Amino acid sequence: MIRRPPRSTHCISSAASDVYKRQDLPQSQTKNVLISSYRRALTYPLYRNFELCEKIKEDVSKVFEEGKVGALKVMLNVKMLFERAEPKYLLNRIFVDDFAIWIQKVDEAKLAGIAKIIKETKVSKEDTGLPLVESEELYHIAQD
Predict the structure, then answer these.
(1) Which of 24, 57, 47, 25 is nearest to 127 (CA)?
(2) In contact, 12 and 40? CB cutoff 8 Å
(3) Residues of the chain falling short of pLDDT 70
(4) Are 43 and 15 in contact (CB under 8 A)?
């Protein structure tokens, strides 16, 4: 049985693609990348949850903390998922292959720096520009 990649993996990938193009990620640029990723994760997938976005941010930070080996393992898993799905294999050529090559050449200290910046960057519900707080308030009112 061939497993198909989750829809959210390829929907969100374009927001994450900017990360590997930057040599130095200042906190403001990192926040913009995270906000873009949060917005996509709160818009496209079946399950939309701000706390899940926060958990994913923690996981991404941990992957970079693990260094080249950890990041390369993740990228190879994504590559394997994309290879099994007809149009998505092109994402390997566009994003995953280049990132996998870059990750092998980058300095471990740079990855640790990226992990630290991601971990320290805070994204609030208001930062997303989506009406999350208002939606939650309406939900609680409707439940009462």
Answers:
(1) 57
(2) yes
(3) 1-26
(4) no
